[in-house]
């Protein structure tokens, strides 16, 4: 770490969601100061119950930050992943103990993670976290990037040698040098929580149907988080069904592995897209997390890729001399270090969606055989577990 970097206060992170907050904490742990601009009110995200699929590698990052002990009682371990396809007998099962891992991953609510991160950040004097600060415009030139934001009905501008955009892709698309490539699937994801007759035994289920994949993740003592994806015209009507009718339809698609489904919580739906932000000539500006890439949730990759963005950027900042922060060379080195992981995450999820959601003649039988064979191929499974756990 460069001593000269300590407390420069010149790094600005736009967006204090999980990825921006993790970056701020990683920097603080190395004595590097930053300012975080976050649009929401303090504590507003704590009640968000939607589930995040955390890889084993992401747990390691949270351990390094010292917040895993608070999170661990609120996280549900995934010890087994069961992959199947509706209408075929092929299936594949991955067990954590076969890979000498304590767990294959964890399910954690967005709210629990936000609370732990915000609490830890409040104890860091190096981090100037400004809530209810909404970034409105970002500009950049060869010497700095600037952000204009509104806070308490006033407009402010901050100049920075390194401005990190971590807004989840929610707000600021009109920035010179940034272009978004998007692939619309025409599919929606329905998310909710369901309770089943049988306990989950820490098993996560990935089930592929010709309409699209669904994931049932153990969450809490008795419940599952459900992500049910498919064509918009098939998913949208599921929102307005009565609870009983919804559970009956879900049971018909999912099968009997956990018995009958007893109850369902509030249902929410959002459109699925694969998108990646391309940057050219954006000195002093870097984009990470969901703002940089959005993936289909089928393989639980997106959030974990975002955390690895934060990890890699924190490392790069720590080894860069202060006068070179935000330079083309520094940003090119960072982008190169993230290229393979990001591309693989995007390709892997796209591949899964396409191969399992396609009903061309003969494909279901081939997929079924594929899953059966895959179950026998230990090195392939090992590679998959390593990829899902650590992005390797
Ligand atoms: C509806 C939905 C459901 C999802 N379900 C799953 C799932 O089941 N499993 C899974 O693993 N992943 C899921 N994801 C993806 C997961 O939420 C993201 O991967 C993760 O949140 C990425 O974190 P992030 O910090 O990059 O972005 P975000 O979590 O989006 O955080 C961005 C932050 O930036 C702030 N912000 C935005 N604009 C501004 C601005 N102009 N100025 C200041 N601050 C700003 C926001 O308030 C927010 O706090 C889902 C995403 C969505 C949208």
UniProtKB/TrEMBL annotation:
Major enzyme class: oxidoreductase
Keywords carried by this UniProt record: FAD, Flavoprotein, Monooxygenase, Oxidoreductase
Pfam families: FAD_binding_3
Cofactor: FAD
GO terms for biological process, alphabetical: ubiquinone biosynthetic process
GO molecular function: FAD binding; monooxygenase activity; oxidoreductase activity, acting on paired donors, with incorporation or reduction of molecular oxygen
Record has Flavoprotein as a keyword: yes
Keyword Amino-acid biosynthesis in record: no
Residue intervals of the FAD-binding domain: 11-339
EC numbers on record: 1.14.13.-
Cross-referenced NCBIfam families: Ubi-OHases (TIGR01988)
Family of this protein: Belongs to the UbiH/COQ6 family.
Entry protein name: 2-octaprenyl-6-methoxyphenol hydroxylase
